[in-house]
Design goal:
368 residues; alpha/beta; TIM Barrel; eight-stranded parallel beta barrel; Alkanesulfonate monooxygenase SsuD/methylene tetrahydromethanopterin reductase-like flavin-dependent oxidoreductase (Luciferase family); Luciferase-like_sf; Luciferase-like_dom; monooxygenase; Bact_Lucif_Oxidored
Length: 368
């Protein structure tokens, strides 16, 4: 199994100490997180996209560009890019720029997002979200793979022989499809034979497994090999301690604080409390052995090759503690027991000379 650390850049006062990051401190915290993730051997670092408090992640390409400047190996994910409300021309330009500056380390996860506050900000209704996502996704694919694109649709003005600049460094920027609530996302992913990333955050395993099963069925329908499906999964929250009881006691204030926010309540989690979520939901709270056992259980249901975790909301010292424990006590076991070939090839890293000289273009390695 491969591992990604991600953040929605949630900035709430600490539930136990009352410690509050300024906006600038939170941005610095994110950069430190990413550098630590690379040092600890995580395979990817992701920034989600939200457009309202308590989240500061309204500009993932800007944040990930700063991450790219302070790291050298770790892949950069968008978890997720809310493509349903964004102009594909702007997305194509911003993320191709990031791909160039990062040396070809970008992988994009697209989705409609799960926070309804972004719809009025960008001028579409919630009822239009799926049609909007599909149209914008298809245009983005063309802008990255074709030149002189001529196009006409519903959600932006027509294009006439447009070639966006810069072009991506990678021959094809990998696109994953975020999945949380509807078969419309799994259908789109299956149609194009592209990887799926299940959010696996707020509901019981059966809900997400049904969407993954649908994705595999539709892969076969569209002529793709479902046996080669590439799937990633979120994991709710992470908190490791020597015993389940200690982990529950230490994490409960954080859980209660976040689930009191309007953003969390919008997701309508069916779990009555943290104990119920630990027993019947996706959160990874307990001893390292217990967390390994739970991840293995979810892998048996999902067959995922990539796992993403988050330490949002914890104190700075606890973030470090949790990442170090996960990297030292959980990840090695899962890498051994659940081997994954995803990302086995190194990212496309190029070193440009100070004075460009004519040369053959670098060979591009496949992502998977």
């Amino acid at each position: 199994m491969k591992f990604a650390l991600f953040s929605l850049m949630m900035n709430l006062p600490n539930a136990i100490t009352g410690e509050a990051f300024t906006t600038q401190q939170k941005f610095q915290n994110i950069l430190e997180q990413a550098k630590l993730a690379e040092r600890l051997g995580f395979d990817a670092y992701g920034i989600g996209e939200r457009h309202g408090a308590p989240f500061l992640s309204s500009s993932p390409p800007v944040v990930l560009t700063a991450v790219a400047a302070t790291t050298s190996r770790i892949r950069l994910l968008t978890t997720v890019t809310v493509l349903s409300v964004l102009d594909p021309v702007r997305v194509a330009e911003d993320y191709a720029t990031l791909d160039q500056l990062s040396g070809g380390r970008l992988e994009m996860i697209i989705g409609k997002g799960n926070d309804p506050r972004h719809y009025p900000l960008f001028g579409i209704t919630e009822e239009e979200q799926w049609d909007s996502l599909g149209e914008r996704y298809r245009l983005l694919k063309r802008l990255w793979t074709e030149e002189e694109v001529t196009w006409e649709g519903t959600y932006r003005p027509p294009l006439d022989k447009v070639t966006t600049q810069p072009r991506p460094l990678q021959q094809s920027i990998p696109i994953w499809h975020g999945s949380a609530s509807s078969t419309l996302s799994t259908e789109l992913a299956a149609q194009y034979g592209e990887p799926l990333f299940t959010s696996n955050s707020f509901h019981p395993q059966a809900k997400y497994k049904a969407l993954i099963d649908h994705y595999r069925e539709r892969l076969d329908h569209y002529g793709h090999d479902a046996e080669r499906a590439v799937i990633g999964s979120g994991a709710g929250s992470l908190y490791l301690a020597n015993t389940r009881e200690e982990a529950l006691r230490r994490y409960k204030p954080y859980y209660d604080t976040f689930h009191a926010t309007a953003s969390a309540q919008h997701n309508q989690s069916p779990f009555k409390d943290l104990e119920d979520n630990i027993a019947n939901g996706p959160v990874l709270i307990g001893s390292p052995d217990q967390v390994v056992e739970k991840i293995v259980n979810y892998h048996a249901a999902y067959g995922h090759q990539v796992l993403s975790i988050s330490v949002d909301g914890l104190s700075h010292s606890e973030q470090l503690e949790q990442l170090e424990r996960f990297a030292g006590e959980v990840a090695p076991v899962l890498r051994r027991e659940l081997p994954s070939s995803v990302w086995d090839n190194a990212p496309l890293l190029t070193q440009q000379p100070a004075t460009p000289t004519p040369s053959a273009p670098p060979a591009i390695s496949p992502i998977f």
